[in-house]
Amino acid sequence: MKNYIYHYTTVKTLALMFSNKTLRFNSLANVDDMEEGQVAIFGDMSKYIFVSSWTKDKKENIALWHMYTNNLAGIRIKIDSSKIKLYKDENNRVVNINSNKKIIAFKNKNFLLDIEYVDNPKVDFFDNSGNITNQQIANLGKFKNKIWNFQNEIRFILMGLPFSSIDNNLLNFLSLKNIFDEAILHKVKTNINYIDLKLDDDLWNDAEILLAPNTNLADERIIRSLIKTYYPDKNIKIKRSSLKLRIKSY
């Protein structure tokens, strides 16, 4: 059974996805919701969590068109979520990322996660007994304030640290998960802004690109040219938005 998800973005981003054959995971430190990655007592942990945000809503979302395209001129990508894959080594490190010699990335718990919308999205690392547990740390990236529930977000999540912050000898007797937990609790330094996950070409077979209400003919031609250049053998459908919106100019 196919599980379709949707991503609102720009034509430029599509061009980068096609040409680089990657999906960008942005640090929570750079997303629009500034409450993300905040932890009770420990403060800001957003720089260690990387996400690619999608929605499950098949129905077009006017707010998402406005927020993530250029003046309603952009696209919505539809793909089968199961086609975005992780390839890992014996230590659970994700190897199909760019810069895998500089970045150590791994899946903490769930790779694809439904966002839970709550009154207070700040994560508490302590359980009911006052202990810090792996389960509590795994909640990073899981919660958002209820004010964002219109997004109906589902996201891919990776954890990431610089290789320079990891003692490779520790991997012989500690799990990467435990090493990560210790690293973020001690707030090791990191300057990673994003992680680019390499994609299988099969991702684009039977994918759909929906043109935003204000996407013009020139952009449509660019999209068709991109498909012809990078994925001529894939059945990528192009459709136009069914919304009838009057585009305002100021």
Account of the protein in words:
The protein has 250 residues and is of the alpha+beta class. It has one domain (4-240). The protein has five helices and 14 strands. It has helices spanning 11-20, 62-68, 134-137, 176-185, 217-230, and strands spanning 4-9, 22-27, 38-39, 43-44, 49-55, 75-80, 103-106, 112-114, 116-118, 143-145, 153-162, 194-198, 208-211, 237-240. The strands form four sheets. Strands 2, 5, 7, 8, 11 and 12 form a six-stranded antiparallel beta sheet that branches. A four-stranded mixed beta sheet has the order 1-6-13-14. A two-stranded antiparallel ribbon has the order 3-4. Helix 1 (11-20) runs parallel beside helix 5. The chain is globular.
Main sheet: strands, sense, barrel: 6 strands, antiparallel
The number of helical segments is: 5
Structural class: alpha+beta
Number of domains: 1
Overall average residue pLDDT: 91
Rg over CA atoms, rounded to whole Å, is 19 Å
List the helices and strands and how they pair.
Elements: E1 4-9, H1 11-20, E2 22-27, E3 38-39, E4 43-44, E5 49-55, H2 62-68, E6 75-80, E7 103-106, E8 112-114, E9 116-118, H3 134-137, E10 143-145, E11 153-162, H4 176-185, E12 194-198, E13 208-211, H5 217-230, E14 237-240
Parallel strand pairs: 9-10, 13-14
Antiparallel strand pairs: 1-6, 2-5, 2-12, 3-4, 5-11, 6-13, 7-11, 8-11
Helix pairs in contact: 1-5
